[in-house]
Amino acid sequence: MSFDDTGREADQVFDLNIDTAGDLEYQTKISRFSNVSHLSIHISKNFGAENSKIFYIGLRGEWTEAHRHEVTICNYESAANPADHKVTQINPQSHFIS
Q: PROSITE patterns annotated for this entry (predicted)?
């Protein structure tokens, strides 16, 4: 996540309240967070202080084993590019490849 990404619409926005005891819980939209493998949190403002201090962010949910999917790199051609297919034997009269 970069600062350019902060302009995008968030999956969920919380209106935070001051919680000195650490008792507040904020409910998430289950449909948005049912299969999360990466989470970025952006805190755009604080309660008027010059600096922000975050002591704890707790996440609750059910743990599931990660499914490892290997990276697949595929190239698809809508039309063959002759420069990609070097051939040494070309018959110039009929343009057939021998």
A: PITH (PS51532)
